[in-house]
Design brief:
This protein is mainly β. It has helices at 150-158, 169-182; strands spanning 4-13, 16-22, 28-34, 45-49, 56-60, 71-75, 78-86, 94-100, 103-110, 115-120, 123-129, 140-146. The chain has one domain (4-182). 12% of the residues lie in helices and 43% in strands. A hairpin with a 6-residue loop joins strand 4 (45-49) and strand 5. The radius of gyration is 16 Å and the shape is globular.
């Protein structure tokens, strides 16, 4: 398949937040998270829906939003192994390794704008800030390189609605004292 790009529009409907767009040759896709009922706690779930896409759900985590810190991901009925790797607090020293079926992915976040990159052998999906939209965080640009399929896209897109601060420099700096105080440990990654 040829490389392609598309844009995700922000969704702000009643108690629903997320993105919606046409993912190139794979058609329409919605990535949404409910805000939770008034007076109740947060739902901490993100769903991805599209006629051509596998059923995809991210759930759990720490805090109000669904989060990589303690969250889980299920694609087409299969739980995806998520492993946070930390080599330090410097830029680029934190990433997420994912495994589903025989596929191995690496996911990282760069910059304050939340630019992200999911990669596996022969495939890269990069998401970046798009154009501004009033009262939202704006659109997201998605660039797909290589022979990507709907499973690759589902993983990359569902993570757009997940708290990924555990992968950022500021998240690492904020988490360091909490990890010491409360004894939360992380895999320190390869030497």
């Amino acid at each position: 398949m040829d490389d392609f790009e598309f844009e995700l529009e922000p969704v702000r409907e009643d108690r629903l937040r997320g993105y919606r767009g046409v993912a190139g040759p794979f058609g329409s896709v919605d990535i949404t998270r409910p805000l939770g009922a008034l007076g109740q706690g947060p739902s901490r779930q993100v769903t991805l829906e599209g006629a051509e896409f596998p059923e995809t759900l991210f759930g759990g985590g720490a805090g109000v939003l669904p989060s990589l810190d303690g969250g889980w991901l299920r694609v087409d009925g299969t739980i995806v192994d998520l492993e946070l790797k930390i080599k330090g607090i410097r830029k680029g020293s934190r990433w997420l390794e994912l495994a589903v079926r025989e596929r191995r992915y690496t996911y990282n976040v760069a910059g304050g704008s939340g630019d992200a990159r999911l990669g596996r052998e022969g495939v890269t999906i990069a998401t970046t800030c798009g154009r501004p939209v009033p009262m939202t965080s704006g659109t997201r640009r998605v660039k797909v390189e290589g022979d990507a399929d709907t499973t690759d896209l589902a993983i990359a897109l569902v993570l757009e609605q997940v708290d990924r601060s555990a992968l950022s420099l500021s998240g690492a700096l904020f988490a360091a004292p909490m990890n010491v105080l409360f004894g939360r440990s992380r895999d320190e990654g390869p030497g």
